What does this fold into?
Amino acid sequence: MIPRYSRPEMVAIWSPETKFRIWFEIEAHACDALAGLGVIPQSAARTIWEKGGSATFDVARIDEIERETKHDVIAFLTHLAEIIGPDARFVHQGMTSSDVLDTCFSVQLTRAADLLLADMDGLLDALKKRAFEHRMTVCIGRSHGIHAEPVTFGLKLAGAYAEFARCRDRLVAARAEIATCAISGAVGTFAHIEPAVEEHVAQAMGLTPEPVSTQVIPRDRHAMFFATLGVIASSVERLSTEIRHLQRTEVLEAEEFFAPGQKGSSAMPHKRNPVLTENLTGLARMVRSYALPAMENVALWHERDISHSSVERMIGPDATITLDFALARLTGVVNKLLVYPERMLANAEAMGGLIFSQRILLALTQAGMSREDSYRLVQRNAMKVWDTYQARKPVAADQFMQELKRDEEVRQALSADQIESEFNMQTHTRHVDTIFGRVFGQGA
It folds into this structure.
């Protein structure tokens, strides 16, 4: 992944230095177990840890060996032998390359998941804080992009919080599913190494033994992991798209923080563009794109092939690094988001009270009118206001109410006072606390 969209801690998980350190630990823990079983000398296991544990693996040297051997694990083991000496002959006893590669990949993905979970905790904290801040900040709800009925901005953010809380639960499950270890040898039968070795390495590396590894860990686990990252990315895009819409000039109910000295356009000095959320939309597309090759990796030939290998060398780092960056960026956007309650209320009131049309519809039916006739009368008066708004003529804040009062058919069912009583914003906010209780817990 390019440095522009990378953060150091996640990048470090995928560095060659980290990878070779994990490879060494897998081999060394296996030697401990082999020594415990009497397969190799205890002194050899100690030497491997003493010399290898303090070593700095020479990435350039390993690459040099690989250019000759055309095999990355053999190149590493050759370099390790240069460091350890004669006792290196006991390393990799009964193991195959996939034991090292797959177990290492599991370690890297679980560490990446831990960072992503921490990222999500930060985002959830930001969403909760801003949701409570704007718990009763009235804004217009939109369906099909058209004014519908009032909501609150706090409810929008509470919805995002609930969505990311679900995403977090999914990631916890995906982490557990990917956290398996395979030390089962060629074709996964333990023919040359005891299952106890796998159990020991798994425990030491914070993993669980893979029930049936067939030489490789089954890739349905990886498919689920990357699919989960894709779902999280989709949630990132959903919130980012909402913010982008709210920042449109005609709406301008919220906008990204615009820092002193920031420039919005190289040509138009007046511009304040939603560049961060637009960027997040693009990054989400990339993270989702990594889910498909992970699914295609599931169907390997027989007990194994390496068609998955080149894919995972790319999607492992790229998907996790990109999502890590995206979650951190979105957290910053939410924390610094500029919110304009007065503009929200003005937009909600812009169409002369049409947002209360359902209240009148229901009131007419309660008064004994058929739903069909009620709908016809409400729509007839609503369209008068709509046409005034569309013609860019002044729309009075109570125009819809006044149109209804002048309609003789409406007045036969509802008095002026009854009509006025339905134009009540509190009707739409009276259950906000109930919804917050469902999202954040009772007493929230």
